[in-house]
Amino acid sequence: MKRFYKSVAAGLIGATAIAAGVAFAAYPEKTISYIIAFGPGGESDISARLQEPYFKKLTGQTVAIQYKAGAGGAAAWSQINSAPGDGYTIIGTNLPHIVLQPLQKDVGYKTADLANVYWFHYTPDAIIVAADSPYKSLEDLVAAAKKAPGTLTFSGSGTNSANHLAQQRFDKLAGIKSTYIPAKGTGASNTALLGKHVAGAYSYSTVGTQLGAQVRCLAIALEKRHSALPDCPTFKEKGYALVSGAYRGIAVPNTTPKALQQTISDLIGKINKEPAFIKSMEEKGFAMIDVGLADMPAFMAERQKEYEAIARDMGIMKK
Amino acid sequence: MMPGIEFLLAALAPFNILLAVAGVVAGTVIGALPGLTATMAIAVLIPFTFGMRPESALIALGAIYTGAIYGGAYSAILLNTPGTPSAIATTFDGYPMAKRGDGDLAITLACIASVTGGLVGAMFLLMFAPPLARFALAFGPVEYFWLAVFGLTLIASLSEGSMLKGFVGGAVGLLLGTVGVAEVGGDIRYVGSFNELLGGIDVVAALIGLYCVPVLIDLVATPDPHLKLTQEVKGYRLREAASISWRSKFNLARSSVIGTLVGILPGAGGSIASLVAYSEARRVAKDPGRFGKGEPDGVIATESSNNATVGGGFIPTLVLGIPGTPADAVILGALLVQGIRTGPTLFGAQSQIVYTFIYGLLIATILMLPIGLVIGRYAFKSIVAIPKATLVPSVALLTVIGSYAVHNNASEVQQMVTLGVFGWVAGRFGYTASPIVLGLILGTIAESGFVQGYLIGNARGQPVAEFFTRPISLGIIAFIALGLLYPLFTARLRARDNANE
Amino acid sequence: MSETPRRDIPGIAGSAVFIIVGVLAIWGAREFSPLGSVFPRTMAAVMILCAAVYIAMALLRPQAPAATPAGSNWRRGALIAVLVAWAFLFEKFGFLSTSLFAYAAILVIANYDRWTPRLALTYTAVGAIVLGGLYAIFRYALQVPLPQGLLF
After folding, report:
1. Is 0.80 topped by the overall pTM?
2. Do the interacting molecules here have an ipTM over 0.90?
3. Are A52 and A70 found together in one domain?
4. Which residues in chain B are contacts of C54 at CB distance < 8 A?
5. In terms of residue numbers, what domain contains A191?
6. Which residues of C fall within a CB distance of 8 Å from B191?
């Protein structure tokens, strides 16, 4: 309720400002629509909800979070460029989704069609086992997999998803063969993990923090250990060059002028520098990353190459 | 162990009571509108709870949730359109009751049943949450597969006219469920050049289309009134409903427990709970033939079980951090934003939040009795009184706006209308909507359970045995066999009795 | 109801259509992965089998077809046409504009009373309240981004 009044007050102040002739006030002058390509309650939604107050704090304007779920995000991403490029429509984008989807099939957009302005955080891949699992370390797991190839089962969210990619890459790096059990979403994957229907799960650091003491994180795909999971070693420590995860960012309609794209990029970057924001993100297991507009082409080219290589190995490229 | 009285007192704080009342009212109204599901009601109203204390926020969300599940019964009974997926089975007997002039009775019955089921679910949550959460984890992919098959066996008894046509309809639904990118396996199936279908056929859009559009099409064809009013309006018919409910106390209890247990299973939810409860009520009934033709016990079974899933669904959500139903997933997200970490520790260190919330949920459920009766009465009166010329376009508008609002996706409105017209044509050929919808909802659960179970079994070197050796699976298989063979058995007994006389 | 038992011709025709759909579904499953094709193939096979058995039974044991509901078929057809047009055009032209047309059209289709100025006025008012109210609730209270399209 308080929020409501606040936003009314903010709106009134904004209206007065315009009436007073400050028509060329800096962007933004009104509420920004922030489209989430998934349903409510997911990590994209939670991230947006956590960013929401800082939009207000830094710009005085609110954001309206709207959900446009469907086709694993493709429903929203394939339509974003038909929205006006005035800076008042922004959309959450995800990697590897926006690279992998167009690789597999014509999904109504191409990776290059999306005007990404910022990547603000990522959820590092992690191997997680139940707390009372016999596998105490990554070494145990690799040894068991080598002894009986194919018998070790890992749940994960979805097929050809970030989790699936991580499983494929680790199998290759470690020279093992494991069985990936695709689940419908992270919740279902967690159920299989806690119910011990699988030996472990390819999941994210966020799941490790969320499930807490019920699970043990065996390895995390970060450069350095995560502050929220200090006992979880990195793959690098164990000698595997695996640094990966699912990235989240912001894109705008591709008709948005470059200068405005830069403004939005800077705004998201500023939110990403707020100490309280960083703290709440890291507590939940997210890892911060800052890829602004300037670094975007190089970053995307690198990711594109990386995912394409795996996609070719997995045989999921469209013919 | 009954947690302390101090939490009950905290739940009785005026602000919490106010939230419970507001939540139940908002939830009931939203749930009654076709296309607006409980999940959506919660998602939309979550921002309002961010300023509140966590337990108050939870009470508000729980009240909205339970109200929405109950509200779904209104449109199921009065318009043959389930307001939420968990009210599908309510249409089976609720709409025939309304058609013969007992709509007010059906709504009052639904209210009593919903409150009872809600209370049972919340009591289980209060007293046995941690052990029951472990029970939920024992259900693996194989068990989900058999549970879905159990739900599908209901097709055999649902099909009016021809069982074969029912099976064909079920297969159509199962095939529709495979459209799009398979979440489990990644195949892109039956999409063709329609990229809109990559995400699959949306269940809510299909529900609205298959149930509501045929009703609208046949409504405009004749000048007859929408619902028959055989007698003068009789008030709430509370006494009559109460005596029917008392007679069906075993049905109420059984359905509530089924609802709670199915609600605990992550991913199953109210639609499966009500289908299982319905088929069990039908199986043990003295005269199963009356089900589907306006049998009050059918409404009691579905409405008590689907509200029981509210309390049941909170069990894995709060104990394990795994959402029990889609609506719980949204609530879990809200809790995370508030900085509350669910899991076993929640019941220890933060027990004040949990138990205050559970008592609040109990209070909200009790409040649903008077609130639900009043709103139900109003809904019934208005649906009966509205002239057809405004009822039809208004309901049509609701179906369009509702199916759009689920995901803000125009292609789902197109799916809704297309399936609706298909459903009407199929109905003319003697193929009813319910088997198709059952196939659509249960098919994806059955398939992913099957594929995951096969993969796990294969890794263990026993892909077939995996399906037939696990104890819980065997239990479900026994129930499936019982459900299919029991009617034959009783029919034979009856035939022999008749011969002896 | 005719005295002599008739064959369920619509049922037979419907079953024939479903057999064709089943064959197409199996044909469409040819490029799926083995695990992805098990389910659709099995279901399509079940569908073909049941539909075939139904045709056989309907030919052997004549049974009355499902009763054809009485009533005006032009009104049914008109309603279907409006619904389809509405669903496929509202994103392009805007939710409010298409809904205004569709609501009015369906109202006319569904009305059996004689049009009097009084009735027309009442129905216009009801329609405006329902449409305006729902639009306001969804657009502003529930923040559903209803498409504006070319018109409004």
Report:
1. yes
2. yes
3. yes
4. 162, 164-165, 168
5. 124-220
6. none
